[in-house]
């Protein structure tokens, strides 16, 4: 019968060596290890990276593109020649899915990263200067929040802005519009957190020493809200992808000849019974994208949380050490 109180001498010796050597593990290393111990988060990261690679190199595995029409295979199901079938116009669905996935990922990454960066700078600036500067910037922020985003997107991409639509591709125009409306909520949250940081001794000491405001914001305020920014990036990418799909689905987002997941889903909605592959393929890709980002977000949240239970083998080793000390006593 196995003795439950038995311990692994090698593990105990390794722990003793680490303690005697005063090994200090950096915060970033701890966060990385916590994230990698979360199998769900790692699976989400793998799925997202796989879809990103597919969107950039998948076009090299087929002879068709999003514009070439195959007159001999119109509305055909998946086959050896057309991996995911063709549309009712004879265009290869695989090529359109590759292009649509790439556009949706680009929109998500650009909007998610840039909006969080803008929110961090804007919110920290409001908190640092305070007073009249804070009131004016807060008024601008509230005014932007009150603007109807749906109406502005519709005017910019459909009803007006002929010059912009002629000079810019529709997906780039949609990125610009989404950037205008995607950072305000995060900026308000960062402002409140930064105002509490302004009362800390290290920030006051930097002010008394004459450190420039720009350096205080970048060196003291932004790093101390880094965990919030990382989580907001993943949420921002997910929100941008869903916004693109929603706007394109109702016809005010990306316009043909540009292709995105929203365009493919919206164009195939009325033909689910006739051409089911045209609807379910882009819908599945969208679910994989947003689902993988949600899995990554949960993993990052646990990794940044000091009280997280995602400690894996490290927690087991701590329990083992405690058991050894108890037996020794």
From TrEMBL:
Residues 304-329 are annotated as: Disordered. Pfam families: BPD_transp_1, OppC_N. It comes from the Bacteria. SUPFAM superfamilies: MetI-like. This is Oligopeptide transport system permease protein OppC. Belongs to the binding-protein-dependent transport system permease family. OppBC subfamily. Keywords: Cell inner membrane, Cell membrane, Membrane, Peptide transport, Protein transport, Transmembrane, Transmembrane helix, Transport. The gene is oppC. Gene3D superfamilies: MetI-like. It is a multi-pass membrane protein. The chain crosses the membrane at residues 41-61, 103-124, 136-156, 168-190, 237-257, 277-296.
């Amino acid at each position: 019968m196995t003795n439950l109180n038995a311990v692994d001498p090698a593990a105990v010796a390794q722990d003793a060596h680490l303690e005697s050597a005063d090994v200090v593990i950096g915060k970033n290393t701890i966060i990385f290890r916590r994230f990698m111990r979360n199998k769900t988060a790692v699976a989400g990261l793998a799925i997202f990276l796989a879809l990103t690679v597919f969107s950039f190199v998948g076009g090299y595995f087929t002879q068709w593109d999003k514009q070439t029409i195959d007159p001999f295979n119109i509305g055909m199901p998946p086959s050896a020649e057309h991996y995911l079938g063709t549309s009712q116009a004879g265009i290869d669905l695989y090529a359109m899915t590759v292009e649509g996935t790439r556009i949706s990922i680009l929109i998500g990454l650009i909007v998610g990263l840039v909006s969080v960066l803008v929110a961090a700078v804007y919110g920290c600036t409001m908190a640092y200067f305070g007073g009249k500067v804070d009131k004016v910037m807060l008024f601008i922020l509230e005014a932007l929040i009150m603007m109807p985003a749906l109406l502005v997107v519709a005017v910019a991409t459909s009803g007006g802005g002929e010059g912009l639509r002629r000079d810019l591709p529709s997906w780039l125009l949609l990125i610009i519009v989404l950037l205008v409306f995607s950072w305000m909520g995060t900026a308000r949250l960062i402002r409140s957190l930064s105002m509490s940081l302004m009362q800390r001794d290290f920030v006051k000491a930097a002010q008394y020493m004459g450190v420039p405001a720009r350096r205080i914001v970048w060196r003291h305020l932004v790093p101390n809200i880094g965990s919030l920014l990382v989580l907001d990036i993943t949420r921002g990418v997910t929100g941008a992808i869903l916004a693109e799909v929603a706007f394109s689905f109702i016809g005010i987002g990306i316009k043909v000849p540009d292709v995105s997941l929203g365009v493919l889903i919206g164009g195939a909605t009325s033909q689910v019974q006739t051409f089911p592959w045209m609807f379910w393929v882009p819908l599945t890709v969208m679910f994989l994208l947003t689902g993988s980002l949600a899995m990554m977000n949960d993993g990052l949240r646990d990794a940044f949380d000091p009280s997280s239970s995602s400690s894996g083998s490290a927690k087991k080793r701590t329990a083992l050490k405690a058991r050894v000390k108890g037996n020794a006593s």
